[in-house]
Specification:
Number of domains: 2
Number of strands: 10
Largest sheet: 5 strands, mixed
CATH class of the largest domain: Mainly Beta
Strand order of the largest sheet: 1-10-9-6-7
Strand content: 25-35%
Shape: rod-shaped
Low-confidence stretches: 72-76, 202-213
Number of helices: 6
Mean pLDDT: 76
Radius of gyration: 38 Å
CATH architecture of the largest domain: Sandwich
Length: 236
Amino acid sequence: MEHFKLEQWADFVRNVLKEKDKEKMQLHLDSGCQTCSQALNTWTRFRQAASRESAYQPPDGAVRTVKAFLANQHRPARAGVAQLLFDSFLTPALAGVRSAAAAPARVMLYGMGDYRIDLRIEPRSASKLAIVGQILIASQTAYSAASFPIALVSGNKTLALLETTEFGEFACDCESQPNLRLEFTLPDTTRIRVPLLQPALATSKSSSEASDSKSVKKRNLSIRKRTGKKDRPRGD
């Protein structure tokens, strides 16, 4: 005797079969097939249980308890702005370096908790920046082989999505924009925000020399006025 499949008996119980198929299955049941009768009884009990489940309303106290538990399990990510620990632009440069034509790179060290973020920002042009950095854990003697996702953000706009290497290193080039920052998402759901303090492009060597020359002339003129001396004519 050929039996009907389980999914067919499920459709029979749900009353979604065509009339001719339903009549054929009913005739099969009337013939006394015990196997198909058991399948029909199983699906009938399943449907009755599902009907009761949809009408069930848990107690209000149980609902409040579960919601409170889930709220503690899914806390929002902690966020904080890293503290600037070192800035190379706050360290006076040597006398000969201050008048250099090329714009120097800006080196900074940020810290938040056990994390340290070393950054180097170098201007490529008037509108391009090169950013290189590394995130370290101060409490660890060796760096753990874990990568962190990083977002490069300007205001409310995400410019790029990065990821550190296994040594915590990262690098990218970007357009110079206001309010640039990096956002690190750590494994413990902590989010660190690091503002990118951009280096300004230095003036050209010729303009620097012209400015120095004007300063010398003004100083000499001030000295002559105080001493009453005048420029001696040439050839004397």
